[in-house]
Write a structure and sequence with these properties.
Elements (H helix, E strand, L loop, with lengths): L3 E7 L3 H11 L3 E5 L6 H10 L9 H6 L3 E7 L5 H10 L3 E5 L6 H14 L3 E4 L1 H5 L1 H11 L6 E9 L14 H4 L2 H4 L1 H12 L5 E8 L14 E7 L4 E7 L13 E6 L2 E6 L12 E6 L3 E5 L7 H11 L7 H18 L4
Parallel strand pairs: 1-2, 1-3, 3-4, 4-5, 6-9
Antiparallel strand pairs: 6-10, 7-8, 8-9, 10-11, 11-12, 12-13
Organism: Dankookia rubra
Keywords: Oxidoreductase
InterPro entries: Gfo/Idh/MocA-like_OxRdtase_N, Gfo/Idh/MocA_oxidrdct_glycsds, GFO_IDH_MocA-like_dom, NAD(P)-bd_dom_sf
Length: 338
C-alpha cells in the first residue's frame, strides 16, 4: 500500500517543498486543507498542485486511518498544537521549521510523543533541502578535511515586505530570528559534530532598520556562537538581501578541518557558475568544485522508510528536540532571560 500524507497548514510557502518532496519520495497526498492566513500561498499551492484533492473538512483528514503523516507549514506558533492533535489521532507529523516557538510548546510536544508513540519531525532546511549540505556531511564523516574544527554559517534572507502576513512580524507568532532561522544552523552543527548538546557562548538579536518594517521591534539581525567537545560554530542570520540579488539569499557555510576546508554556496555562486548547491572542497592534495544541484538529500526517502519501519534514520527524535531546545536557549540568552 502506498503511504499517504495530508497537508494541514499552508501559511508559509515552504509547504510547496514539503508536499513536493513527499510526493517525490513515493507518498500519496490524501488531501490538503485550504484555510490559510496567506492568500499568496493558497494561490501558489492551487497552481502547483492542481491535481491534489482539496478537502474542506479538516477533521476528515485527521480521522482518516489511511493517512500516516500530517505535513504542516501553519503559523509557527500554531504548529505544536496541531502536531499534538495529529499525534493523538495516530499520525506522525512533519512540520516546517521552526516547529517549536516556546518552552511550553516544547514540553507539550515532548509529552505527546511519549504518550502516543508517534514522531514529531521538523524539516530544518539544510538537512532536508540542501544536497550540498548532505554531501558536505558525507565528506566530513569520511575524514576528507581531517578532524572537524569549526563551522561558520551565513543565512541572509530577502524581506519581501509586501507579501508577508501579519504573523510574520511578531516573535510571538513567528518565533525570534534565532528560533526561526537559527534552528537550521543549529541542526547542521549538531549533525556535523554527531552530538545533541552544545554550549551557547554568545547569542544576540537586533532591530537594525525598523523603518523597513511595519513594526518597530522586528528582529532583522541575529547571531550565535556555539561549541561542544568536537568543534565550534559561528552563526549569522539577517533580513537584508538586496533586491538586485538573483535569489532570496546568498546562503554560505564554511567548514574548517585540520586537513582542509569546505565552502558551500547553497543558493547561487555570485557572478560565477549557474544555479545553486555548489560545494568547494580544499585539501592538502587538491581544490575541487562539486556540483550538487539536482541530487537528493535522501532525507525524505529515509523518512518514508522510517514511517514504515518505525526507525529514526532521517532524523532522531531526541536530535530534533535538542535543536529546538538550543534555539530557545539562544533566544533566552539574547533577550536576557537566561
Amino acid at each position: 500500500m502506498t503511504p499517504r500524507f495530508a497537508v494541514i497548514g499552508i501559511d508559509h510557502r515552504h509547504v510547496y517543498e514539503l508536499a513536493q518532496h513527499l510526493i517525490d519520495a513515493g507518498m500519496e497526498c490524501a488531501g490538503w486543507w485550504p484555510v490559510t492566513t496567506n492568500p499568496h500561498v493558497l494561490a501558489g499551492f492551487r497552481k502547483r498542485f492542481a491535481q491534489l484533492p482539496e478537502v474542506s473538512d479538516r477533521e476528515r483528514m485527521l480521522e482518516d486511518r489511511s493517512v500516516q503523516l500530517i505535513a504542516t507549514a501553519a503559523v509557527p506558533s500554531e504548529r505544536a498544537v496541531l502536531a499534538i492533535e495529529a499525534m493523538r489521532r495516530g499520525k506522525d507529523v512533519l512540520a516546517d521549521k521552526p516547529g517549536i516557538t516556546t518552552w511550553a510548546d516544547l514540553a507539550a510536544v515532548e509529552a505527546a510523543v511519549i504518550q502516543t508513540g508517534r514522531r514529531f519531525i521538523v524539516a530544518f532546511g539544510d538537512r532536508w533541502g540542501s544536497p550540498a549540505s548532505a554531501r558536505a556531511k558525507e565528506l566530513v564523516r569520511a575524514g576528507a578535511i581531517g578532524r572537524l574544527v569549526s563551522t561558520t554559517g551565513i543565512s541572509p534572507h530577502r524581506l519581501n515586505r509586501e507579501t508577508r502576513p501579519g504573523w510574520f512580524w511578531s516573535a510571538r507568532t513567528n518565533g525570534s530570528i534565532l528560533v526561526d532561522i537559527g534552528c537550521h544552523q543549529i541542526d547542521s552543527f549538531l549533525s556535523l559534530t554527531g552530538r545533541e548538546e552544545a554550549e551557547i557562548v554568545h547569542a544576540a538579536v537586533r532591530s537594525v532598520a525598523p523603518e523597513r518594517t511595519p513594526v518597530t521591534d522586528f528582529q532583522d539581525w541575529g547571531e550565535m556562537i556555539l561549541r561542544n567537545d568536537v568543534a565550534s560554530a559561528t552563526m549569522q542570520m539577517h533580513w537584508f538581501t538586496p533586491n538586485g540579488l538573483a535569489d532570496w539569499g546568498d546562503g554560505r557555510t564554511f567548514i574548517v578541518g585540520t586537513e582542509g576546508f569546505i565552502e558551500l554556496r547553497k543558493n547561487l555562486d555570485l557572478a560565477g557558475r549557474e544555479g545553486g548547491q555548489h560545494l568547494f572542497l580544499v585539501t592538502n592534495e587538491r581544490t575541487e568544485h562539486i556540483a550538487c544541484a539536482g541530487k537528493r538529500t535522501g532525507a525524505y526517502q529515509a523518512l518514508v522508510a522510517d514511517l514504515r519501519d518505525r526507525t529514526e534514520t532521517a532524523m532522531g527524535q531526541s536530535h530534533c528536540f535538542a535543536v529546538c531546545r538550543l534555539a530557545l536557549m539562544a533566544e533566552d540568552r539574547a533577550l536576557g532571560r537566561a
